[in-house]
Amino acid sequence: MVAADPHPYLLSTLDKGGKINNNLYGLDPGWYDLVDKDIIEGEFNRQKFASGKYAVIAEAMFIEEDSYSAYYHPGDTVTFEKSGKSYEVMAVVKNDAVYAATTKSFSMLGYNAFLPASELQKEMPQGTDPANIVSATLHVNPAKMDLVEKAAKALTDSTNELTLKSREDYKEELGGFIRIFQTVGYGLSLVIALIGVLNYINTVLTGVVSRRNEFAMLESIGMTKKQLKRMLILEGLYTVLLTVLITSTLGVLLTYNLSKSITENMAFMVFQMSWLPFILTVPVLLTIAYSVTLKAYKTLCQASIVERLRETE
């Protein structure tokens, strides 16, 4: 393939013909719905693409620069030398777009190009290798899954050139990887939560101890123990309210952006944010605040007003 406007880094590696390595794939209509989610430039029109006049080009991977870039852009014309045909670039997609429909390999400094499967099924020029079927995807009614899987296994087991992968097989393979994420995530959350609770307990107890003289003076001029207890409990509840206010705004925004950016780079993960864990932690925080404050109050009341006032002297 000849590049119309090659990437600057490629100039030092091209041969005299200015050719670029590429993997050419044909897509059946069943794959069309998966193209949209990986588009970077342009738009994917199913009817126009099926006409056989357009191509979808993937980004190229530049290892030395550790970056991705597209050789072509929507509206450019790309020519495949072996077939002698030219196509208009309809859209540019991510480097690993439609991954399951490819050989799952990438050319050095090259890229993937996608055409309608019918284009590769046409008669090619003499001396050109015929197109090979890379993969076939079966969309099966869940009620007939076992029957279809048995029939498919009967076909694949009869030859070493075919393999069968079901959705359940992929789930099982990724299950261990997902469990690692869960273990690390839950573990870090538990550690951070424990540190936060211990820090809160230390802050409340230290605050009560440092203000015991202040509380003794308030009691000496008429504040009752019931009023003091109520004041301490309200202070604890205000702390929880402030925590909930910050986490429900800035905290949620930060978590949303970080989590979404991570999951978008993993094809097997779907981002879904739930408010349930956040809501369930609110009563836990209230319980901790009330319990810690109550314990601090009982510790404070172990000494009499006179004893606490003498400490001031």
Question: Topology of this structure?
Answer:
Elements: E1 22-27, E2 39-42, H1 46-50, E3 54-58, E4 60-62, E5 67-69, E6 77-80, E7 85-93, E8 111-116, H2 117-120, H3 145-156, H4 167-210, H5 212-220, H6 225-263, H7 276-300, H8 305-312
Parallel strand pairs: 1-8, 3-7
Antiparallel strand pairs: 2-7, 3-8, 4-5, 6-7
Helix pairs in contact: 4-7, 5-8, 6-7
At a glance:
The protein is of the alpha/beta class and 313 residues long. The protein contains eight helices and eight strands; from the N terminus they run E-E-H-E-E-E-E-E-E-H-H-H-H-H-H-H.
Describe this structure in words.
This protein has 313 residues and is an alpha/beta fold. The protein has two domains: 130 residues, no CATH class; 145 residues, no CATH class. Helices cover 47% and strands 13% of the residues. Strands 1, 2, 3, 6, 7 and 8 form a six-stranded mixed sheet that branches. A two-stranded antiparallel sheet has the order 4-5. The longest helix is centred in the middle third of the chain and has 44 residues.
Supply the key terms.
six-stranded mixed beta sheet, two-stranded antiparallel ribbon, 8 helices, 313 residues, alpha/beta, 2 domains, 8 strands
Which series of helices and strands comes N to C? EEHEEEEEEHHHHHHH
Low-pLDDT parts are none
Radius of gyration: 33 Å
Percent of residues in helices? 40-55%
Q: Characterize the quaternary organization of these chains.
A: single chain
